[in-house]
Amino acid sequence: METDKLINALAADSRPPGVPLPLVWTGATVGAMVIATTVFFAMLGPRADIASASQTLRFLFKFVVTIALAASAFGLLQILARPEAEPRRLLSCLAIAPALLAGGVGAELVVLSPDSWSARLVGTNSLICLTFIPLIGIGPLALLLLALRHGAPSRPTLAGAIAGLAAGGMAATYYAAHCTDDSPLFVATWYTIAVMLLALLGALAAPRVARW
């Protein structure tokens, strides 16, 4: 038997019978959104001035970045769940969110005077950011890792890290509605650290949860 046919056969055998993979991903996505929404509104809720904040470019830009990260990571995760996936050809899609954020940071540095850069980067909610993005994202990450069990990822550590990025992007999108620090400098620093914590957790957990 050829290697690719053997891999496909093993992948088919590893999936629980009667559960189509698209349905698994749909269920995981809906469940992740329900969990993230519940945690967000139970513990934080939107910022008090969200109506006026939504009229500003910096506030809206946060959602552009976080949604781009969540969408690109989730799309890549579904591909990595298949054993024949070649990640080197796919990882470039993850550059979308960092490229957007880099552009936002560059524009911020041009617009602001250098003596204000440090204050914008540090912000006022860094500890809250580092706490609540992982807290909102841990449930969605667990569901995405469980969904990987229905696939056959040949690189579970990488797939787990991407699951963490997807969960982190989703959690950061919710948290952005609460956060009053809208500077791209703040987002590039603290949002990134918080999301990477989930990526690290996913990378560590996936080989145990999603092995086949």
Walk me through what this model shows.
By secondary structure, this protein is an all-alpha fold. The protein has one domain (23-209). The chain has 9 helices and no strands. The protein has helices spanning 3-14, 21-43, 50-53, 57-80, 96-111, 117-122, 126-148, 156-176, 184-209. It is globular and about 50 Å long. It starts with a helix and ends with a helix. The model has no long low-confidence stretch (mean pLDDT 87).
Query: Distance N terminus to C terminus?
Result: 20 Å
Could you name the ranges where pLDDT drops below 50 across 5 or more consecutive residues? none
Structural class: mainly alpha
Oligomer: single chain
Q: How many helical stretches?
A: 9
Q: H/E series, N to C?
A: HHHHHHHHH
Q: How much helix is in the residues?
A: over 70%
Biggest sheet features: none
DSSP strand tally: 0
Rg on CA atoms, Å: 19 Å
Number of domains: 1
Mean of all residue-level pLDDT scores:
87
The outline comes out as globular
Proportion of strand residues: under 5%
What keywords describe this structure?
single chain; 212 residues; mainly alpha; 73% helix; globular
